[in-house]
UniProtKB/TrEMBL annotation:
Subunit: Monomer.
Stretches assigned to the Enolpyruvate transferase domain: 5-420
Protein name: 3-phosphoshikimate 1-carboxyvinyltransferase
Keyword Electron transport: no
UniProt cross-references to Pfam families, sorted A to Z: EPSP_synthase
Species the sequence originates in: Metabacillus lacus
Gene from which this protein is expressed: aroA
């Protein structure tokens, strides 16, 4: 993929469905009683992996574009799969499905791609084992391929070392089949899509500060789910709109759940000209967000903000190269266990473009503003968010940039380059 400099970005685009919410809608619809209709589903590779896993477990799921119908069979209705459940590149699929499978009475095999095989699973397999599931995998169940046998589960009170919605969700989902109450406490609050959507499916979930609790034995009733646009996808165009000269863009229907809007807080702190309108307030709030070319300054990103923008850090790092002064990103060790080690991949790729960026043990330090130079090859390293960050960088480089591994972008944003072309006045993709 050859990337050319853009003179400006202008226009309005509708952001595709949220990845986290799309996964959950299929999963919860599958274990609910009745027919769940999902609109604005994200047909990205990760969410398609979730559909295929639940089909293998005996659930009838039909997809027409972004409309999905799930014929729920209840948690007890799931049947053993004849083959390995392939989660592809998707951490959310494997970690959440383990929470569900822990409560079944059969054995399942789980595996994914090379990236998944390097990502730690003990953060989920450890609490699920404590609850009564039995899980076997490489290095004491820390790495795929994994075999999970469901069992009679008991509720637990679990203190998670990481603020992770995947860990929290897996434990809460197992808690549905557990005896008594299950409680998860996190160091900071992570995205709460599971809690919100379980309520839409008729389940009682209690939340207090950084703790979520669920009572075992509750059943799910089918619901209609309209997925808002993914703020993590919108972030790439928000950043592009702020740094490409003479730009003014509007992104419609962006999910603005407060556990996800750290990127908006940071953009504001950096001085971005950003405004919100057309707020809708359903279980998952959404809004239209407009941004213009802005005079940005550096900032510090740390602490409770990190889980609220964890997936946006690659694009925020690029933004920081175009901001006056220093940007410090810390408390973000979790970046090391994403689709790639995103501290290493961000620093390696942005350094190629002449950015002043250094890796630290728990984040990175970026000094701006530096012009970005092209005329070289950059790589997504097979990571969708690194690929999109570099595609946005390509809008700023004097010389052409060649992006290797751009196909990874289809994991979360299959129409990314179409949207970029729509907004881009002069880039010929
Ligand atoms: C997700 C949670 C986050 C996020 C991922 C999606 C989810 O991961 O990075 O893209 O849908 O629950 P962690 O739970 O590992 O922080």
């Amino acid at each position: 993929m050859k990337l050319k400099k853009a003179a400006s970005l202008k226009g309005i685009i509708r952001i595709p469905g949220d990845k986290s919410i799309s996964h959950r809608a299929v999963m919860f619809g599958s274990i609910a009683e009745g027919i769940t209709s999902i609109t604005n589903f994200l047909p990205g590779a990760d969410c398609l992996s979730t559909i295929s896993c639940f089909q293998k477990l005996g659930v009838e799921i039909e997809r027409k574009g972004t409309n999905v119908t799930v014929k729920g069979i209840g948690l007890k209705g799931l049947a053993p799969a004849e083959e390995t459940l392939d989660v592809g590149n998707s951490g959310t699929t494997i970690r959440l499905i383990m929470g569900i499978l822990a409560g079944t009475s059969f054995e399942s095999n789980l595996a994914g791609d090379e990236s998944i095989s390097k990502r730690p699973m003990s953060r989920v397999t450890k609490p699920l084992t404590e609850m009564g599931a039995s899980i076997v995998g490489r290095e004491n169940g820390n790495y795929t391929p994994l075999t999970i046998s469901g069992g009679h589960l008991k509720g637990i009170e679990y203190k998670s070392e990481v603020a992770s919605a995947q860990v929290k969700s897996a434990i809460l989902l197992a808690g549905l089949s557990g005896e008594g109450m299950t409680t998860v406490e996190e160091p900071h609050k992570s995205r709460d899509h599971t809690e919100r959507m379980l309520r839409a499916f008729g389940v009682e979930v209690e939340e207090e500060k950084t703790t979520a609790s669920i009572r075992g034995g509750q059943t799910l009733t089918a619901a209609d789910i309209n997925v808002p646009g993914d703020i993590s996808s919108a972030a790439f165009f928000l950043a592009a709109g702020a740094i490409v000269p003479d730009s003014s863009i509007t992104l419609q229907n962006v999910g603005v759940n407060p556990t996800r809007t750290g990127v908006l807080d940071v953009l504001k702190a950096m001085g971005a000209e950003i405004s919100m309108g057309n707020m809708s307030s359903s279980a998952e709030p959404a809004a239209d967000i407009s941004i213009k070319t802005s005079n940005l300054k550096g900032t510090t990103i740390s602490g409770e903000l990190i889980p609220r923008l964890i997936d946006e850090i690659p694009i925020l790092a690029l933004l920081a190269t175009q901001a006056e002064g220093t940007t410090i990103i810390k408390d973000a060790e979790e970046l090391k266990v994403k689709e790639t080690n995103r501290i290493t991949t961000v620093v390696e790729e942005l350094s190629k473009l002449g950015a002043d960026i250094k890796a630290t043990a728990d984040g990175m330090i970026i000094a701006g503003r530096t012009p970005l130079k092209g005329g070289c090859k950059v790589s997504s390293h097979g990571d969708h968010r690194i690929g999109m960050m570099l595609a946005v960088a390509g809008l700023m480089t004097e010389e052409e940039l060649e992006l290797e591994g751009s196909d990874a972008i289809s994991v979360s944003y299959p129409s990314f380059f179409d949207h970029l072309a729509e907004l881009s006045a002069s880039s010929e993709l």
